[in-house]
What we know:
CATH architecture of the largest domain: 2-Layer Sandwich
Shape: elongated
Order of helices and strands: HEHEHEEHHH
Helix content: 40-55%
Strand content: 5-15%
Number of strands: 4
Oligomer: single chain
Radius of gyration: 20 Å
Largest sheet: 4 strands, mixed
Amino acid sequence: xxxxxxxxxxxxxxxxxxxxxxxxxxxxxxxxxxxxxxxxxxxxxxxxxxxxxxxxxxxxxxxxxxxxxxxxxxxxxxxxxxxxxxxxxxxxxxxxxxxxxxxxxxxxxxxxxxxxxxxxxxxxxxxxxxxxxxxxxxxxxxxxxxxxxxxxxxxxxxxxxxxxxxxxxxxxxxxxxxxxxxxxxxxxxxxxxxxxxxxxxx
Length: 202
């Protein structure tokens, strides 16, 4: 078998295993390292919310890079390690010299840090966080319900202060899964909030 045939066969197996929905091919567009990270992070976070399981991230070997240094591959490797610490990625495996197989963590892993209680909670009045006022009332209501469910699962009290903090925390986590070029960013956020609630109810 020629090298070209071997590569074609390997790609056919990858397509059968992962398919387009679970493959991020960064090699094709030849992005810079920074562009690759900007594309990869929201994609990985969104795939986690969709419970994609194992995904394939193709970086290329760096043969076309100056000096043959795989800068995109190294940038993605560092991103994956960061996302592992943040509860997005469960494990990372080298699939080929130009790709990674990434096992995404369960959605609940994003939210499993128990919030600390606030000593000054009595002075905090209920209401939506000021930081989220730009969102539609329905989206804020969804976030509040998610925050309350999260606190319940974590065994934390549902005080006004902790609900406030949890809404902001959930928004920060979920908004990272909305791509910058998404045309309906709030609609996408609503979908992700629902997916997160479903994960808590599983």
